[in-house]
Amino acid sequence: MASKSAKRPVLIVNGPNLNMLGTRQPEIYGKETLADIERACRAEAKSLGLTVDFKQSNIEGELVGYIQQARAANSAIVINAGAYTHTSVAILDALNVAELPVIEVHLSNIYRRESFRHHSYVSLAATGVICGLGSQGYLLALTAVAQLLTKK
Ligand code: DQA
Fold first, then answer.
1. How confident is the model at residue 23 (pLDDT cuts 50, 70, 90)?
2. Of the candidates 44, 49, 39, 15, which has an alpha carbon nearest to the alpha carbon of residue 120?
3. DSSP code, position 9
4. Which of 13, 19, 108 for a ligand 1 pocket mutation test, highest count of atoms within 8 Å of Cβ?
5. Which of 66, 84, 86, 106 is an active site residue?
6. Best residue for ligand 1 mutational test, from 32, 107, 114, 133 (most atoms within 8 Å of Cβ)
7. Which among 28, 31, 20, 18 has a CA at the least distance from the CA of 113?
């Protein structure tokens, strides 16, 4: 039986510049928009018996706020923190406060790119990390969340 918290929506939280997907460096990030990814996530969540809260912000403090609220409101967190992945101790601290399963997602393979992208603060709080598979990474993250929540 899934626990009560498993019935809460999964928070899918996106950081800076991800609102520009579709026009932003499509050779790296693909042609899909964030709205396309949201639609695909909602469909995948439905087929897995989950619901999602889908958020994006360019502001670090707003992302921290969404993650803080997740402790009471969400069952798990799927996070693509964008560039804050590589800089934000505040997001790492918020993820640790949440005490929820965390799946870190990146559209691109951050390990094939500039060395400053090789370090992730988010990874220190992540249950698992998916990168380099484009928008499919979000869907794989939801599959992982569904399994983690039924194991609880
Ligand atoms: C990203 C990778 C980050 O290094 C970059 O700053 C992003 C997007 C990705 O999804 O591949 O904004 O998180």
1. very high
2. 15
3. P
4. 108
5. 106
6. 107
7. 28
84 catalytically annotated = no
**Tokens found for residue 83:** 């560039």
Both tokens of 46, joined, read: 């439905």
CA of 64 to the centre of ligand 1 (A): 18
Q: Is 22 exposed, middle or buried (0-12, 13-18, 19+ CB in 10 A)?
A: middle
Q: Minimal CA–CA distance to 45: which of 138, 150, 148?
A: 138
- Residue 138 has which token pair? 């979000």
Q: What is the pLDDT of residues 86-112, one digit of tens each?
A: 999 999 999 999 999 999 999 999 999
